[in-house]
Design a protein that fits this description.
This protein has about 290 residues and is of the alpha+beta class. It folds into 2 domains: about 70 residues, no CATH class; about 190 residues, no CATH class. Helix content is about 25%, strand content about 30%. The chain has 9 helices and 17 strands. An 8-stranded antiparallel β-sheet has the order 12-7-8-9-14-5-2-16, with no helix packed on it. A hairpin with a 5-residue loop joins strand 8 and strand 9. The model has no long low-confidence stretch (mean pLDDT about 90).
Length: about 290
């Protein structure tokens, strides 16, 4: 058995996986990794990326660059042009990122699910009663980004961004093992609530949820990196128009994006639980 297959076998054991990725000093380790990942030293970089490959299915063949300055530079890599074409149909809302589709469906009177049988409150997630009321019986879909995936995320449609709100929190792992064990996990973790509207005025809300290790979210239209060290005002008024497929920012580690949409939107045929999806592919359909 190879070292990689042995590690894979061990981490698939739920108790051990949960222990190794959660029962540790999460905040301290996250701060450390935030600094460590930016070290621009060839030995540190090569060792870090080699270790990352050992623990994941990291594939850099799509990367625009063939040489990275640091682990952080590799995490936030751009792709070669044309590898994530955006569905041009104006009736289609596309996936903002690469990911694995988690729970999705209809929000029932302000309640949605992180996995089947594990409900959480829309108000707890958003921290905004008016916005929660708008989405009270709408649609939701959860997209999980693993550590080896492309970490940049894009606009789902032609949108107007009117506010971003950072909500400080914990840095639990967001893998399925943790989602089964930690109640209301998405409501506990660090997250940003990106409030946007379609040209019709309907709310389409994007909630990037950070996780253990780097736990930072870069937003280009604010020219800010939001994380646990962010101080001062945590609500950022915006007046920004973005085009469908336009890059909005990136995660500095694998994490989750929750998309909230109007009730009359339908899910596209390719949306299946635990199925893969890529940025630009159909996610929701406007009737």
């Amino acid at each position: 058995m190879t070292v990689k297959s042995l590690i894979s076998s061990l981490t698939q054991q739920e108790d051990l996986n949960f222990l190794l990725t959660n029962r540790i000093p999460r905040a301290a380790l996250t701060r450390f990794m935030g600094r460590f990942s930016k070290i621009e030293n060839p030995l540190v970089r090569d060792f870090s990326i080699g270790l990352w490959r050992l623990f994941s299915d990291l594939d850099l063949s799509e990367a625009k660059k063939t040489h990275f300055k640091s682990l952080h530079d590799c995490f936030t890599r751009e792709l070669k042009p044309g590898l994530r074409p955006v569905d041009p149909d104006p009736k289609i809302v596309v996936s903002p990122s690469d990911g694995i589709i988690g729970a999705f469906g209809t929000i029932r009177d302000g309640e949605l699910f992180q996995i089947k049988g594990a409900p959480y409150s829309l108000l707890d997630l958003l921290g905004d009663p008016a916005l929660a009321d708008e989405h009270r019986n709408g649609r939701f879909v959860t997209l999980r980004l693993t550590s080896s995936m492309y970490h940049r995320f894009h606009s789902l449609h032609d949108l107007h961004i009117d506010q971003v709100r950072l909500i400080h929190g914990d840095t639990w792992n967001v893998n399925p093992i943790a989602l089964k064990r930690i109640e209301k996990l998405f409501c506990k973790n660090e997250r940003a609530v990106i409030r946007t509207r379609l040209k019709t005025g309907e709310a389409l809300t994007i909630v990037p949820v950070a996780a253990i290790l780097v736990a930072s979210i870069r937003l280009h239209f604010l020219d800010l990196v939001l994380n646990g060290q962010t101080r001062g005002p945590l609500t950022y008024p915006c007046d920004v128009d973005v085009k469908k497929g336009e890059e909005l920012g990136w995660f500095e580690h694998g994490s989750t994006i929750i998309v909230l949409a109007p009730a009359h939107f339908g899910f596209c045929e390719n949306v299946t639980e635990w199925g893969p999806i890529r940025a630009g592919e159909p996610l929701l359909r406007v009737p």
